[in-house]
Design brief:
This protein is of the alpha/beta class and 268 residues long. Helix content is 30%, strand content 27%. The strands form 2 sheets. A 7-stranded mixed sheet has the order 2-7-8-9-5-10-11, with helices on both faces. Strand 8, helix 5 and strand 9 form a beta-alpha-beta unit. Helix 2 packs parallel to helix 4 and helix 4 packs parallel to helix 5. The chain is globular. Bound molecules: adenosine-5'-triphosphate. Adenosine-5'-triphosphate binds next to strand 4 and helix 1. This is ABC transporter domain-containing protein. InterPro entries: AAA+_ATPase, ABC_transporter-like_ATP-bd, ABC_transporter-like_CS, ABC_transpr_CbiO/EcfA_su, Molybdenum_import_ModC, P-loop_NTPase. Keywords: ATP-binding, Nucleotide-binding, Transport.
């Protein structure tokens, strides 16, 4: 089966779930994504209707290209549209216009670690999403072990999930997505609720999971500039628009220069 798909602006809205979940099979049309790109969108827009019936633009003319097998970050000030763009890439929202291609299957991991894990033990939680594939028990065990190993959580196999830290829960959620052989991981501000240790643990887990699943791509929404050191590339947004995309150090320089000029303005 072809694991790539095109999501056109007319695709049906998909119901968000409260755990990492695969959104691979419910798109309006299917085509091959260029092998070297995991995500490609052009001139994407998204608007919502206000109570007065007016269209309120949230995203305008957004274009990004993210290569397969890389760890990318999506940055920008509060309210610039990062989560909205990520939800569109995950098939959770429909764009109002433009063109979007995302490799499948794709998985969305949400911000709140307590919304990520639903089963009593780590092992059961990672196996949970595999129920739909009708796999032999051996295959389920092997996928669960490999996925937990990739995020450094194998030794927690039998642990009750309520005993895990926030970051460990996030890593289990990521393992769930890897076990389902997802090609694109969409990660929405996973470190917002985490302390520094857990923050670094989750970042390293994403890095090592990409290394152990060649071709898998991650897009990570964050506010934290220091996280860019883990990224291969980044997209910077402002006010509903993609301002710049490129290698992580160029984006870091750009954002720091902008912040510097903003501080100068305040102080002048
Ligand atoms: N359904 C909606 N109705 C009205 N406004 C919306 C809706 N969804 C998003 N917005 C607005 O669109 C803008 C972008 O929201 P979004 O959550 O995508 O931003 P963000 O960059 O992820 O923000 P943050 O960094 O604070 O999480 C915000 O101003 C938000 O209030």
């Amino acid at each position: 089966m072809n694991s790539s798909a095109v999501v056109h602006a007319t695709a049906a809205v998909q119901r968000p779930l409260l755990r990492s979940h695969s959104t691979g099979n419910n798109c309006a049309a299917v085509a091959t994504v260029a092998d070297n790109l995991a995500i490609e969108c052009r001139n994407l827009s998204y608007s919502v209707k206000t109570r007065q019936g007016r269209l309120l633009p949230i995203l305008n003319d957004c274009s990004i290209s993210i290569p397969s097998g890389q760890f990318w970050m999506l940055l920008g000030p509060n309210g610039c549209g990062k989560s909205t763009l990520l939800k569109i890439l995950g098939g959770l929202l429909n764009p109002s216009g433009g063109y979007l291609r995302v490799k499948k299957p794709r998985s969305f991991v949400f911000q709140n670690p307590d919304h990520q894990v639903v089963m009593p033990t780590v092992e059961a939680d990672v196996a949970f999403g595999l129920g739909k594939f009708n796999l032999a028990n051996d295959e389920i065990t092997s996928r669960v072990v490999k996925a937990l190993d990739a995020v450094g959580m194998y030794e927690y196999l039998q642990r009750p999930v309520q005993t895990l830290s926030g970051g460990q829960k996030q890593r289990v959620a990521i393992a769930g997505a890897l076990a389902e052989a997802c090609k694109v991981l969409l990660l929405d501000e996973l470190t917002s609720f985490l302390d520094e240790n857990d923050q670094v643990g989750v970042l390293r887990a994403v890095k090592s999971s990409l290394a152990s699943s060649p071709g898998t791509t991650a897009l990570w929404v964050t506010h934290r500039l220091e996280e860019l050191e883990y990224a291969d590339g980044a997209v910077y947004m402002e006010d509903g628009k993609v301002v710049l995309q490129g290698d992580a150090s160029s984006i870091l320089n750009f954002v720091e220069a902008q912040q510097g000029s903003y501080i100068k303005q305040i102080n002048s």
